[in-house]
Write a structure and sequence with these properties.
heterodimer, A: 93 residues, mainly alpha, 5 helices, elongated, B: 201 residues, 4 strands
Chain lengths: 93, 201
């Protein structure tokens, strides 16, 4: 393969990659990107790193958990919930 | 409590954790995140009658949480919005010797679809937290919470095109930060990627 240059076309492709990965692009645009990627190993490498970034974000679960509800906060929520149920009952009559 | 206690507990437990995580990553303060979660749930129960489409409860709750989060931030530190430039988020091109190569880490060791270990989870947390707020809220809703573009646009009062633009730049910024950690770290992420993951998600 010829030495690759960081071309304007590469930058154009990179600007569309999230929509490409989200399958939000029209078929023609996807085909153009596929054709570019077929001849551009650096862009393939870059797409792969972006795809893994998205995967990692989707699998991310924060370790921090909220403190257990204290008695007062729980009572506030239960009270609001009861009022909501009563309002719905009245509305359905 | 005379209502459906089990439904109440499930709803509160699920959304309290979700709202806490969103707010914690937006505000960075545990106490603020706890308060926003409580305020949001109260508001949700108080205004449940306004929810017209019950199947859209998740984006509706997040919109209330986002507003509560904004109110909380107005009371604390005002953070001006920042813009991310696409050019600044692209990897450097190294053309030494006539054979071009991107200055990019080796991502091939990072496996897909597995539960994240602590080191990687912390790296993602650092990367997401470093993204400017106006982009961070989008990546949290779109990629972490997996809400749709339309739902995210409605929650944040943005157009769908702006959501798409911000999501892309946020992803590029997170990618760049993780790439830096993979390249300059002590390879801890790679070690954990290879041996430290466990179980399939």
């Amino acid at each position: 393969m010829e030495p690759h240059e960081h071309s304007e076309e590469c930058k154009e492709i990179v600007s569309l990659l999230s929509e490409y990965l989200n399958l939000e692009l029209p078929p023609g645009a996807c085909q153009e990107i596929d054709a570019h990627l077929a001849g551009c190993p650096p862009c393939i490498e870059f797409v792969e790193s972006l795809r893994k970034t998205v995967e990692l974000c989707k699998r991310y679960q924060p370790a921090e958990l909220p403190e257990p509800l204290n008695i007062e906060a729980r009572a506030q929520l239960e009270n609001a919930y009861e009022k909501m149920l009563n309002a719905r009952k009245k509305a359905s009559l | 409590m005379t209502g459906d206690a089990e439904a109440f507990n499930r709803f509160v437990e699920h959304f309290r954790a979700k709202i806490f995580h969103y707010t914690w990553l937006m505000c960075g303060q545990r106490e603020d995140a706890e308060e926003v979660a409580q305020d949001t749930l109260l508001r949700v129960f108080e205004s449940f009658g306004q929810l017209r489409e019950p199947e859209r409860v998740r984006p509706w709750v997040f919109r209330i949480a986002r507003n509560a989060c904004l109110m909380k931030r107005r009371k604390s530190v005002f953070a001006p919005s920042q813009e991310l430039s696409l050019d600044d988020l692209l990897p450097t091109w190294n053309d030494e010797g006539g054979h071009g190569k991107l200055q990019i880490a080796d991502w091939s060791d990072l496996p897909d679809r597995q539960v994240l270990q602590d080191e990687m989870r912390q790296a993602i947390e650092r990367a997401i937290s470093a993204v400017p707020e106006n982009y961070r809220s989008v990546i949290l809703l779109r990629d972490v919470e997996e809400l749709s573009t339309l739902e995210t646009a409605q929650i944040l009062d943005l157009t769908e095109d702006v959501v798409k633009t911000r999501l892309h730049r946020a992803r590029l910024a997170v990618r760049q930060k993780l790439d830096e950690e993979l390249r300059t770290g002590d390879r801890a992420l790679h070690r954990h990627a290879k041996g430290g993951y466990h179980g399939a998600a």
